Amino acid sequence: MIEQKNIKKSEKIDKIPLKKPKKINEFLYFALRNNKLKVGLVVVLFFLLLAFIGPLLTHYKWDAYIGPFSQSPSSEYWFGTTVFGQDVYTQFVQGLRATFLVGAIGGGLATIIGLIIGFTAGYRGGMVDEGLNMITNIILVIPTFALLLIIAAYLKVRGIMTESIFIGFTAWPWAARAVRAQTFSLRSRDFVDLARLSGVKPLKIIFTEIAPNMMSYLLMTLILQFGGAILIAATLDFIGLGPTNAISLGLMMNYAVLWGALQFGVWWWFIPPGFAIMAIVGSLYIMNVGLDEVFNPKLREM
Amino acid sequence: MSLKVKNLKAYYQTLSGDVKALDGATFTIKDGEIMGLAGESGCGKTTLGHSLICLCPPMKFIEGSVKLDDEELPIWDMDKMNTFRFKKISIIPQYAMNAMNPTRKIGKMTSELLESRRISFKTTLPELKRRLDLVELSYDVLNMYPIELSGGMKQRMVMVISTLLNPSLLIADEITSALDVSTQKAVSEMLVEFRDRKIVKSMIVITHDISILYQIADSILVMYAGKLTEKAPTDVIIHSARHPYTKLLISSLPKVGVRYAEKKLKGIPGNTPLLLNPPVGCRFRERCPVAFGKCMEEPPFIEIKKDHFVACWKEFRKNA
Amino acid sequence: MRRYFGRKIVIYISTFFLAVSIDWAIPRFMPGNPILNLLTRVASRAEASEYMYTYYTRAFGLDMPIWKQYLNFWIALFHGDLGTSVFMFPQKVSAIIMRAVPYDVFLLVPAILLSFYAGNKFGAFAARTRWLDNTILPLGYLLTATPYMWLGILLAWSLGIVAGIFPIAGAYGFNLAPSFSWVFIASLLKHWFLPFTSLFLVGFGGWAIGMRNMIIYELEADYSHYLEALGAPRQLVRRYAFRNAILPQITGLALQLGVIVAGALVTEVVFSYPGIGWLILAAIQNQDYFLIQGCFLFIIIMVLLANFTIDIIYIIVDPRTRMGMQGGSA
User: Which member of B53, B100, B148 has the closest CB to residue C323?
Assistant: First the structure.
């Protein structure tokens, strides 16, 4: 047994100043070098730009009959006209706006709800966790699409907001699960224990220790939810349960199929909207993979 | 059998450059010799062990030659090395507890492994059973999943599997680190017994725990920062080491019967150098209590007495 | 194992209750009165309307107190009675649904099984070399990001209309009647091919991506390194990695069922394929609440059953779950 008197003052552990790891700079370095991230981001930004500026380049309304039926793309009508003589380009860019809106609101809402529920479940554990977990599992199992179908079917008037909110409220289990798993793993890490032992208040622990480590994960979850919301919205719109007073990419495809664009060969009405969705969501997914590589050193290519 | 390693160099590729983890190892192991490989974390001992059997990315081969039983080992060629792996040279890895496929019954996995190496499981089975007796595992384990075994049992099972084909050289990588003291003793003794029964010809036992080596090793090789510092028979290392690092290492071991109220447990102040850009000359010189001018030049690993190799200018002077 | 199943069963039963209750509740608390809607189509004189209103209300059981309606709903459910369709009056909902089910099974089962098998095998294959990986990865992500209906539309338009190879509506030729003749079967298959391919391709992309990620993880595991150190051929290491990587994929399948069902619904709409999806759309367009309800209920039950089946399969396939339940021996 080492007796206390032998520990001289000079042997007290020196206060080694902890260097705050320059995480942001390290991430930026890898981010700028990651091809998947760059390509994905460029594509998404391109469409976003198009959604912003596109409608400014046209003076038509999406549902106005402005020209001859079923014109193929020309210099006058850039994306051609629909079976009814509406401008496809206008519909497309307006639809892009709607799509991005739904993705942002629906995806954002789902992430927030998922974050709250997942984090509470992960952090508190015990009965709270069991209960929340059960709710999450139930909603996961229910084919929420069928549910959305029914609810939307009964509402006479639907707007983009309503659609987004519905999607947000049914898509959150995925985010909740992911957040809960991450919280669990972070909660038992040493630095959190250290903070707790030092008497830091729980709320402060959450914000200063856990949150920064979750940021990367949250960003990736948000991107996934964004893409997912776009897909769900497009599918709902296609069945005819989309917004009743606006146009979206899914609705374009719905009208196209409904009014015989297939049979009449009016391909410029249904190919662009679906292509845009595939490009945007696909790029979001690829961006996500790139982000994963940036945040997770083990995955980085040599 | 004998192992002759000459100037073996293996670096790790990283984005910031090459980490010179193993920078010129030259030594010999005789038939039936158990050589301990000791040193601090990051000194290169695991790199050395792995380079002999599986030099895979991100490790890259720089230069050197390895001869096992006078046969050159093509360690830079992953495919050609396969003829030697398991049969001539084998390893008990550091992660032995997780080394078995969790979703396969142990017996099934062993038989599939053997069959894939063109060895009949049926003919090997009686020998396998004898080995299980040796390590005191019941035959039932062959029908169990790894999750059903305790840590110590998994360790012993991996020992059996790795030595099943009587390799000439066995590399045991930190196999006692995760065990409690009594199990450490049992496992170490098992290693010696493998050698005594000629199941394994020679062994390299990698560990940072010199006290284990004192019990079972015939000779000890001490590494520091990717370089070899001293190699000698065990009691020479323990009682009459020459290299300053080895001396400090030995003296920092707690000794039975000494109360540390009277004596202070000495450590070695300082940190190991980063191997991305290792210091010029002797890599220990910044922590060495007896460093002097000549140490700016890298000391060679020279045999100063029979079977006693050292890399230290101070010691060369003494001998000269 | 008992606890595991016990927990699962509680979830399934609660889900069932919740879903059925939601299903029952929505029409009753939504704006609009189904009977009135029915009557507006049958425009008639005032007294006749009123009489018909009372008749139909009673026929559909809407005059009873709410709790009684709820109870009756459950009782009828256990008798297999899902009500009577409004727009296909007086056919029973269950009968209508049963007619549509075989088409869904014919479409979904091969699509799910084949895309799961092919996708996973392909994903494992893609993880072999960096070059393969870099080309396959973006393709896979694009495929899985493709909206089901758009792929369906593309296939319908390119192979159906432009190339004229495949028909794009119905389950079989309009001039044919179901029989065991070659003509009929050929027509059936021709009509089936495009919707099936559409579902298959999107699913394929998703599974390929998932498996590629899982396999990389398994190839980096300790047991893989051990096998390599002992000189095991790559085939063995890959085989073990694949078998271990498939496990989370099976769990993933259970979670994806909702998405796959949505995809099938929408594909049927594109191809006018007379499955449940097409039925739901028709029901919505005709505001046939009882048919909608019945379809939804049916989907829920099928999804729950499928989930349960997958849970059982998972237990059989992953020995760790069985061990974990019984506790390991020390």
Answer: B148
pTM equals 0.82
Q: Do A277 and C262 touch (CB under 8 A)?
A: no
Q: Tell me if A252 sits within 8 A of A95, measured CB to CB.
A: yes
C321 at interface of B, judged by CB pairs closer than 8 A: no
Angle CA A236–A242–A244, to nearest 5? 165
Q: What is the least distance, in Å, from the CA of A11 to any CA of chain B?
A: 12
Element (H, E) at A150: helix A144-154
Interface test with A, best of B12, B14, B15 (most A CBs within 10 A): B15
DSSP secondary structure code for residue B85 in this structure = B
CA distance B94 to C229: 12
Q: Do C225 and B158 touch (CB under 8 A)?
A: no
CB pairs under 8 A between B and C: 80
Q: Establish if A300 touches chain B: CB-CB under 8 angstroms.
A: yes
Q: Please state, as a whole number, how many other Cβ atoms lie within 10 Å of the Cβ of residue A43.
A: 17
Q: What is the pLDDT of residues A128-185, one digit of tens each?
A: 888 888 888 888 877 777 777 777 777 777 788 888 998 899 889 988 988 888 887 7
The beta-carbon neighbor of C138 closest among A265, A271, A286 is A286
**What's the pLDDT tens digit per position in C296-306?**
888 888 888 88
Who among B14, B57, B261 is closest to A3 (CB)?
B261
Determine the residue of chain C that is closest to A35 in CA distance: C134
Residue (of C275, C315, C319, C269) closest to C298 by Cα position: C275
Q: Are strands B227-233 and B302-305 parallel, antiparallel or unpaired?
A: unpaired
Q: In this complex, is the C-beta atom of A43 within 8 Å of any C-beta atom belonging to chain C? A: no
C214-234 pLDDT, tens digit each: 898 898 899 999 999 999 998
